[in-house]
């Protein structure tokens, strides 16, 4: 809690009367949204006290404060993954800091493998629910009572109002043909899954699989922070559609979906 306060105070000192309304986390290959922000302040993660530093090449390591679609936003350009060797409290540290800085909604994106047989490359899946298959979660350990309760309820991990706004925004933008809603399974990675693991994930009810998001969502729900999360389907993992993927393929597909994701996020922000 002390570290969270120090990081918050450091940022607040520069932000002054900039009051962020929403936080945004940009996933792998989905950083272009950052170019659309009217940036007022830019922080390198390395300069923020106690912030972890991103090690993934496709992720920048910057926190941006600025305006997007008329809303004041904090944007994490680069996120932290458990597979990089961070502890879960480190992975969610920035989310907690953004909440302490005053954000009232959190919008999260990620690149994910599609398990549902109908999903196609570059589809956008709104998360309705998730399955946490990470080996641990950020709430393990002494509860930070200032942030939230010991036993947070998880019946509605993804905010229904934000989901409705996203659906509405997708209709306005004529993106409905790319939109899906489903269950995201979060695994530690960094290796992708075996064919048997994909079949298992499908059997237990997952529509998409990735290596992020759920820790941040758990931390947000703990703090009572409403979350919208969107997966960009970057590869297909349904039986019969499986083929070898590499990070370059994933980034290429993410680039195709990126303008749709950017438009969707801006439209949701405008409706907040
Ligand atoms: N698994 C499979 N495919 C993926 C993943 C994953 O974790 N992330 C992006 N595409």
Q: How would you explain this protein's 3D organization?
A:
The model has no long low-confidence stretch (mean pLDDT 94). The chain has one domain (2-139, 153-271): Nucleoside phosphorylase domain (Rossmann fold, 3-Layer(aba) Sandwich), CATH 3.40.50. Strands 5-8-7-6-9 form a five-stranded mixed β-barrel. The chain starts with a helix and ends with a helix. With 272 residues, it is of the alpha/beta class. Strand 6 (124-132), helix 3 and strand 7 form a beta-alpha-beta unit. The protein is built from six helices and nine strands. It binds hypoxanthine. Hypoxanthine binds at residues 111-113, 187, 189, 192-193, 209-211, 234-235, 237, 250. Hypoxanthine is lined by residues 111-113, 187, 189, 192-193, 209-211, 234-235, 237, 250.
What's the gist of this structure?
With 272 residues, the chain is an alpha/beta fold. 31% of the residues lie in helices and 24% in strands.
In CATH, the topology is named Rossmann fold
Provide a count of the helices.
6
Q: What distance separates the N and C termini?
A: 29 Å
What is the string of helix and strand elements?
HEEEEHEEHEHEHEH
Total beta strand runs:
9
Number of domains: 1
What ligands can be seen in this structure? Answer: hypoxanthine
Widest sheet: strand ordering: 5-8-7-6-9
Into which percentage range does the β-strand content fall? 15-25%
**Could you name the CATH class?**
Alpha Beta
CATH superfamily: Nucleoside phosphorylase domain
Q: Which CATH-level-2 architecture?
A: 3-Layer(aba) Sandwich
Helix content estimate: 25-40%
The description of the largest β-sheet is: 5 strands, mixed, barrel
- Per the principal axes of the C-alpha atoms, what is the gross shape? globular
* Mean pLDDT figure: 94
Rounded to an integer, what's the Rg over CA atoms?
17 Å
Kindly name the structural category. alpha/beta
Function: The purine nucleoside phosphorylases catalyze the phosphorolytic breakdown of the N-glycosidic bond in the beta-(deoxy)ribonucleoside molecules, with the formation of the corresponding free purine bases and pentose-1-phosphate.
EC number: 2.4.2.1
Pfam family, one: PNP_UDP_1
GO molecular function: purine-nucleoside phosphorylase activity
């Amino acid at each position: 809690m002390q570290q969270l306060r120090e990081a918050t105070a450091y940022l607040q000192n520069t932000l002054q009367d900039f009051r962020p309304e929403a936080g945004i986390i940009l996933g792998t290959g989905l950083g272009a949204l950052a170019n659309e922000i009217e940036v007022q302040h830019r922080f390198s993660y390395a300069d923020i006290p106690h912030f972890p530093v991103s090690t993934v090449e496709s992720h920048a390591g910057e926190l941006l404060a600025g305006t997007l679609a008329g809303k004041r936003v904090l944007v994490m350009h680069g996120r932290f993954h458990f597979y990089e060797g961070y502890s879960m409290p480190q992975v969610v540290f920035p989310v907690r800091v953004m909440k302490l800085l005053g954000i009232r909604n959190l919008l999260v994106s990620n690149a994910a493998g599609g398990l549902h047989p109908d999903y196609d490359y570059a589809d956008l899946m709104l998360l309705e629910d998730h399955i946490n298959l990470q080996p641990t979660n950020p709430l393990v350990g002494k509860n930070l009572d200032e942030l939230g309760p010991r036993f947070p309820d998880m019946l509605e991990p993804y905010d229904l109002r934000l989901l409705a706004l996203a659906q509405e925004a997708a209709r306005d933008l004529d993106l409905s043909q790319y939109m899906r809603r489903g269950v995201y399974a979060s695994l530690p990675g960094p290796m992708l899954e075996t064919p048997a693991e994909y079949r298992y994930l499908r059997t237990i009810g997952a529509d998409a699989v990735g290596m992020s998001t759920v820790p941040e969502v758990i931390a947000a729900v703990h703090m009572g922070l409403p979350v919208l999360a969107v997966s960009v389907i970057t590869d297909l993992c349904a039986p019969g559609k499986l083929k070898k993927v590499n990070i370059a393929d994933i980034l290429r597909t993410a680039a195709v979906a990126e303008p749709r994701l950017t438009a969707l996020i801006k439209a949701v922000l405008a409706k907040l």
